[in-house]
Amino acid sequence: FLEGDADSGKTSICQEFCFENMANTISIFFNPLNKIDYNIDYFLENVISQLRLYLEYESNNSDYSVNIGIEEFQRLLFKIRKKTKKENLYFVIDGLECNTKENNLLLKKIIDILPLGDDNISLLISAQQKEFLKKNENLQKLETRSQSVLGFSEQQVSKFFAFDDIPISNDEIEKIIRITDGYPGKLQVCKKLSFTVPIKEIIENEFKK
Q1: What long-range pairs does 188-197 form, CB within 8 A, spacing at least 24?
Q2: What pTM, to 2 d.p., does this model score?
Q3: For residue 93, what pLDDT is reported?
Q4: CA gap 170, 128 in Å, rounded
Q5: Which residue in 128, 121, 122 sits closest to 103, CA to CA?
Q6: Mean predicted confidence (pLDDT) in 107-127
Q7: Rounded-to-integer distance, Cα 43 and Cα 37, Å
Q8: Own/partner pairs for 109-114, CB < 8 Å, 24+ apart?
Q9: Of the residues 11, 33, 51, 81, which has the fewest C-beta atoms closer than 10 A?
């Protein structure tokens, strides 16, 4: 479990993990601003297409199915279990917090069909471990661990802005950390603003709030 406050950078970290493990990662990113995403069909459609790519399926394959549903998902998983005996496979789930009744129902459906307990299949979920385990008995039976998103140090913040040649003083770095808690997600927002607004003005506006 990857834990952290809103805008702490959990999604960015998940995206980076997927990029670095592209060949053996199945990912699903739910957009909190798009409620249409929050249904089992959206999950299955995205995951099944990735499983087919992982298995190097083509539409003209004799074993190819046009169906997008739980049966097709489980059929592909059966084939993947044979393949993952030789390599690890990661499932990354981001944006599915246990904060609404609808999300909890969807979460239960997803957890019920995921290959929990397989030695060569691991899950990375960006959410609070305690809340997830409380609402999912299947997960309680597994060995899980959590990692919190930590804020950047002053030196890391300096390098973060220097990467795009954005001038920032030591005093401004200290104040930016107070505003953002050093979280990568919040720092990214500040960096984008700094392309059009001076760092000093961003800080002044934030401290006025």
Answers
A1: 188/9, 188/12, 189/7, 191/160, 191/161, 191/164, 191/166, 194/161, 194/166, 195/164, 195/166
A2: 0.76
A3: 92
A4: 33
A5: 128
A6: 85
A7: 8
A8: 109/40, 110/40, 110/43, 111/136, 111/138, 111/139, 112/138, 113/70, 113/73, 113/74
A9: 33
d(CA 42, CA 45): 5
Model pLDDT for residues 32-47, shown as the tens digit of each residue: 888 888 889 999 999 9
Scan for tokens 């499932």, then name that residue.
Answer: 91
How much is the pLDDT for 96?
84
Among candidates 2, 6, 4, 1, which has minimal Cα distance to 32? 6
The size of the chain, in residues, is 209
Q: Which two tokens stand for residue 144?
A: 């899980």
Tell me which residue of 81, 78, 79, 91 sits closest to 122, measured CA to CA.
91
